[in-house]
Design goal:
Elements: H1 3-14, E1 28-31, E2 37-40, E3 44-46, E4 50-56, E5 64-68, E6 71-72, E7 85-90, E8 98-107, E9 113-123, E10 129-132, H2 143-160, E11 189-192, E12 195-196, E13 202-206, E14 212-214, E15 219-227, E16 231-237, E17 242-249, E18 251-252, E19 259-260, E20 265-268, E21 279-286, E22 289-291
Parallel strand pairs: 3-9, 10-11
Antiparallel strand pairs: 1-2, 2-4, 4-7, 5-6, 5-8, 8-9, 11-12, 13-21, 14-20, 15-16, 15-19, 16-17, 17-21, 18-20, 21-22
Length: about 300
C-alpha cells in the first residue's frame, strides 16, 4: 500500500468522529460529466474535523482544480498514471455552521469548461469551556510583548500560506509521545483570568518536563524557535498544506530547514510560553483549517 493510501484510509475512517459521540454518516458519491465521479467520506462534518475527498474516472493527462468553501484545495495522484485524485478537507474549529461546497473544475474533451460540486453541511462542534489563571503578561501583554506576538502571528500565517506540492509523509501518522494514545482540550473555549479568549486549537498531552517529543510523520521543519504564546515551538511541513505543530517545549532538537523522519526526536516536553504546567501542545493545520490532530492518527482495523 502506498504512503498516500495509508493517510487516506485513516482519514476516511476518522472523518466522522469529533470530541463527542456523533452518528456515523454515509459517504457521498456524485456522478459528473465525462465519467467523472466525486466522492466524500461524508456529507456532514463537525467543526474541527477532517473529510476525505476523491475524484475518480480521470484521465492521466487531465488537470483539475478544486475548491473547498471558496478556497483552493491541493489535489494529488498516487502515481502519474492514476485515474484517481485525492484531497483532505479540513473543517476549521471555528468555521460557521452551514452549507458549503467542495467543487472541482476541468476542461472536457471538446475544450469546454466543466464543473461539479458536492454540498457539505458543517455542524457546530461540542466543545467545553475551561477557566484558567495564567501570568498577567499572557492576557494583557505590554506594547513590546504585543508587537512580538503579532510578529509571531504573521510568521505563522506565511508558513501556512505555503503549500508544498508533493507528499512528504510516509505511512502512518503517530501521536508524538511514546506510550500515549489520546489527549484532550482540543476546541475548548478558554477564559483566561476572567477574559474570554480564542479556542484551544491543539491537543494537550500532560507529561513530565524533559519527556522526548517525536515527529508525528516525516517532512521538513519550517519553524524551530521560541514564540511568545507557544514558547519553544516546532512546525513540520508534511506536504500538500498539512502541518503539525509542537509547542511549549523545554528544548528544541531540530532547526528550520531540517528534513525529519517519522518518530525522529525533535525536542522535549516543557512549560515555556503561556502554560499552567508542563505538557505537549500538538496542533494540526490542513490548508489553514485548525483540525483535531488525533484525527490524523491512523486506526487500522
Amino acid at each position: 500500500m502506498t504512503r498516500a493510501s495509508l493517510l487516506l484510509m485513516f482519514a476516511c475512517l476518522l472523518a466522522e468522529r469529533t470530541q463527542g459521540k456523533q452518528p456515523v454518516q454515509a459517504p457521498v458519491k456524485k456522478p459528473c460529466d465525462s465519467g467523472i465521479i466525486l466522492k466524500l467520506s461524508s456529507g456532514t462534518a463537525s467543526q474541527g474535523s477532517l473529510l476525505l475527498a476523491e475524484i475518480s474516472g480521470a484521465k492521466p493527462s487531465q488537470e483539475f482544480s478544486a475548491e473547498w468553501a471558496g478556497r483552493p484545495v491541493p489535489l494529488w495522484r498516487e502515481t502519474a498514471a492514476s485515474p484517481t485524485l485525492r484531497a483532505l478537507l479540513g473543517v476549521d474549529l471555528e468555521k460557521p455552521a452551514g452549507r458549503y461546497e467542495w467543487k472541482i473544475s476541468w476542461t472536457g474533451d471538446d475544450g469546454k469548461p466543466l464543473a461539479c460540486s458536492v454540498p457539505v453541511t458543517v455542524r457546530v462542534g461540542k466543545f467545553p469551556t475551561e477557566r484558567l489563571t495564567v501570568e498577567k503578561q499572557f492576557v494583557q501583554p505590554d506594547p513590546e510583548q504585543q508587537k512580538r506576538a503579532e510578529e509571531d502571528q504573521k510568521k505563522m500565517k506565511a508558513i501556512y500560506d505555503t503549500v508544498t506540492p508533493e507528499v512528504l509523509w510516509k505511512g502512518k501518522f503517530v501521536v508524538p509521545l511514546k506510550g500515549v494514545s489520546t489527549g484532550g482540550n482540543f476546541g475548548r473555549r478558554r477564559v483566561l483570568n476572567g477574559e474570554a479568549r480564542s479556542p484551544h486549537a491543539g491537543v494537550d498531552f500532560p507529561a513530565a518536563a524533559g519527556t522526548p517529543v517525536y515527529a508525528a510523520q516525516s517532512g521538513k521543519v519550517v519553524l524551530a524557535e521560541n514564540l511568545y504564546y507557544s514558547g519553544n515551538t516546532v512546525v513540520i511541513d508534511h506536504g500538500f498544506g498539512i502541518y503539525t505543530l509542537y509547542a511549549h517545549l523545554s528544548e528544541i532538537g531540530v532547526h528550520a530547514g531540517d528534513p525529519v523522519e517519522a518518530s525522529a526526536e525533535i525536542g522535549k516536553v516543557g512549560a515555556t510560553g503561556r502554560v499552567t504546567g508542563p505538557h505537549l501542545h500538538w496542533g494540526l493545520t490542513i490548508d489553514h483549517a485548525r483540525v483535531n490532530a488525533l484525527q490524523i492518527v491512523q486506526r487500522q482495523p
